[in-house]
Amino acid sequence: MAVSKMWSWFLPLVFGVTLLKCLLIPAYYSTDFEVHRNWMAITYSLPMSKWYYEETSRWRLDYPPFFAWLEYYLSYYAQFFDEEMLVVQNLNYTSNATVLFQRLSVITTDMVFIFGVISCCKNIKRTKESKEILEKPDFILAVLLLCNFGILIIDHIHFQYNGFLFGLLFLSIVKMFKGRPVDSAVLFTVLMNFKHIFIYVAPAYGIYLLRSYCFAENKQDGSIQWRSFNFLRFNVLACIVCAVFAVSFGPFIVMGQLPQVLARLFPFKRGLSHAYWAPNFWAQYNAADKVLPVIGMVAEHVVLRQ
C-alpha cells in the first residue's frame, strides 16, 4: 500500500523534472558537449584498437572502457539524427540535430538515476506514516535528489552524464542496506569502470565490506572478532573486482595497450588537472588556503611575544 501511494507522487515529480530538462535542451553548453561528441565519433568511426590513441581533437578519450562502450552504444542511435556528428574530423560540430540527440541521451540515461532514487526512497525506514506529503521522508529525499540543482546544471546545461553514474552509486548503496554486499560490490566496481574518479570512494567501500562481510562475528562489545575473518568471502569479493576489471580492460590487455589506456586515465605527464584557468586558480587558492593560516599563527605568536 505504501509503495502504491509513493507512485502517486513520484511519477508526477519525475515528469515535472524531465519536462524541465527538456526545456533546457537549447540552453548553453560547455566544452564537455564537444568532448562527448568527439568520443562518440571515435568509438563509432575507429576500431577499438585506436580508441585510446586518437588525437585529432584536444579532447582525447580519457575515461575507462565501460564509458567508451557507452559512447559506442549512443553512437548507434546518433547516426539516425545526424551522421556528421560521428566524423572525427568534424571538430566543434553542433548542428541542431546533434544538440537534440546529445541532450536527449543525457535525459534518457537519467532513467538509471531515477531508478536509483526510487530504490533509495523504498529503502527508507518509516517510524510512523505521516498524512502530510511534505513530512514524508521518502518524498523529501526524492525531491532533494531529483531536483538537485547541481546535477541539473552540470548535466543538462554544462553537459555531462553524472546522473547516470550517481544512479549506479545509489543502487550500490541500496544493496548494502539490503544486506547484499556482493551485489553492491559488483555495481560499485562497474561504476569505477565507467568513471575512475569514483576510486576515491573505494577505500570506504573496501573497509565497509571487510568489516561487515568478511568478518563473520563480533565480540560482545561490538568490536571485531579477528579470528572470524572469512577468507572465502574475501576471495569472492576479490574475484568480483578482478572479473569486472577483466571484462573492462581485458581487450586492451590482449592488444598490449594497457599502458596507453592507463596513461590516458592518469595523465601524470600532462598534469592531472587540465591546464586551463579554472584548475590553476583553484590550485593557487588551495595553496593559499593552507599557507595563510600558518602565516597567521606565526604572526600572532610574534605579536604575543612582543
Helix fraction, binned, reads 55-70%
Q: What is the average per-residue confidence, as pLDDT, rounded to a whole number?
A: 88
Write the H/E string, N to C: HHHHHHHHHHHH
Coarse shape: globular
Could you please describe the fold and organization of this structure?
It is a single chain. By secondary structure, the protein is mostly helical. 66% of the residues lie in helices and 0% in strands. It has twelve helices and no strands. It has helices at residues 2-23, 31-45, 65-78, 96-122, 137-146, 149-159, 162-177, 181-192, 202-214, 231-254, 258-265, 277-305. The longest helix is centred in the last third of the chain and has 29 residues, at 277-305. It is globular. The termini are far apart. The mean pLDDT is 88.
What brief labels describe this structure?
mainly alpha, globular, single chain, 306 residues
Lay out the secondary structure.
Blueprint: H1 2-23, H2 31-45, H3 65-78, H4 96-122, H5 137-146, H6 149-159, H7 162-177, H8 181-192, H9 202-214, H10 231-254, H11 258-265, H12 277-305
Helix pairs in contact: 1-4, 1-5, 2-3, 4-5, 4-7, 7-8, 8-10
Task: Please sum up the structure shown.
By secondary structure, the chain is mainly α. Helix content is 66%, strand content 0%.
